[in-house]
Amino acid sequence: MSTPKIAEELARSESGFGTRSIRDPRSRSVEEWIADSLFEQLHGQYGWKESVARDYAAEFLTGQAAASVVDKLARLFPVAGSTVLEVGSGLGSILLEMRRRGFRALGIEPSEEWCGIIRRRFEKEGLPSSCLVQGIGEDLPFADESVDLVVSLQVLEHVEEPERVLCEIDRVLRPGGIFYLSAPNYFSFSEDHYRVLWFPGLTHRTGSWYLRLRGRDPDFYLNHVNNLTWFQVQRAAKGLGWINLKWQRRVEKARGWPKLAPGLSKWLYLASKSLKTDMNLHFQKPGGTTRAMASSMDRSARSP
């Protein structure tokens, strides 16, 4: 990606997802800064009820959700002892929680304002914030084959070029490394941000018309959502040669079935996943299996 393109993307990311930049952030506590930023996004951009947006912000500030996510990652994958990269650190809760636990975690976030929030959070806890880099997923500033686990949570639907981001993730992953992805599926019947009924296959034009019909402002959707689908991610993963660990776990459990059963099972599995509201995918880069990644595959095979 050219330098002008990178500069353009960063310039568009002064504040998180294009929300109104909070004035004089140093004059308020970091908790107030986070609450104001979230409220602007949830109420101002998505159209959530004011009370719901404030309750969400209050719950977010407890850190319980971030702790639960890191607990899950630690159960599924060998986070301790691995180099972990979070692509899209948002307001920093996951990255901060991993660093609190002593994990070797790095983060990248395009929003200048949200990078400021993350650094303030690290500063408040006496932790170095050098693990955070401002940048974009289409041009990860990390060396080839330098990380063991990449985590991306509710981010890929917001990037300019999802396939390029996935290629960059493949580049920085070591052979045998794992990519953990969660994202909304726009080939489903629910819109995750505006929390409205959705219809699979809507274009930006028809989607924005529909949001207006529902009394919502489509500006965020038009400028910050790429209509990511489960099919799109699967196609890109197949092109990169990634192993679908969830499917592999299912196959391991199905040993001893009649020969036709796994094929039918895979068809039903793929059909059911393609319409789910949320994607939760675990991929492994082929070409080598380190001790840590072998342990991860074993954990995945044994987890429910």
Mean pLDDT: 86
User: Structural class of the secondary elements?
Assistant: alpha/beta
What strand line-up does the widest sheet have?
3-2-1-4-5-9-8
What's the Cα radius of gyration?
20 Å
**Known CATH architecture:** 3-Layer(aba) Sandwich
CATH topology name: Rossmann fold
The biggest sheet amounts to:
7 strands, mixed
In total, how many domains does the architecture comprise?
Answer: 1
Q: Care to count the β-strands?
A: 9
- The H-and-E topology, N to C, reads as HHHHEHEHEEHEEEHHHEHHEH
Q: What spatial form do the alpha-carbon principal axes imply? A: globular
Query: What is the top-level CATH class?
Result: Alpha Beta
Write up this protein:
With 304 residues, the chain is α/β, with parallel strands linked by helices. It has a single domain (3-185, 226-243, 278-298), classed as Vaccinia Virus protein VP39 (Rossmann fold, 3-Layer(aba) Sandwich), CATH 3.40.50. It is 48% helix and 15% strand. The protein is built from 13 helices and nine strands. The protein has helices at residues 3-11, 30-45, 50-62, 64-76, 93-100, 112-124, 162-172, 204-213, 219-224, 230-240, 245-253, 260-274, 291-302, and strands at 83-87, 104-109, 132-134, 147-153, 173-184, 190-191, 196-197, 243-244, 278-284. The strands form two sheets. It has a seven-stranded mixed sheet with strand order 3-2-1-4-5-9-8, sandwiched between helices. The protein has a two-stranded antiparallel sheet with strand order 6-7. Strand 2 (104-109), helix 6 and strand 3 form a beta-alpha-beta unit. Helix 2 runs antiparallel to helix 3 and helix 4 (64-76) crosses helix 5 (93-100). It is globular and about 60 Å long. It starts with a helix and ends with a helix. The model is unreliable at 1-12 and 290-304 (pLDDT under 50).
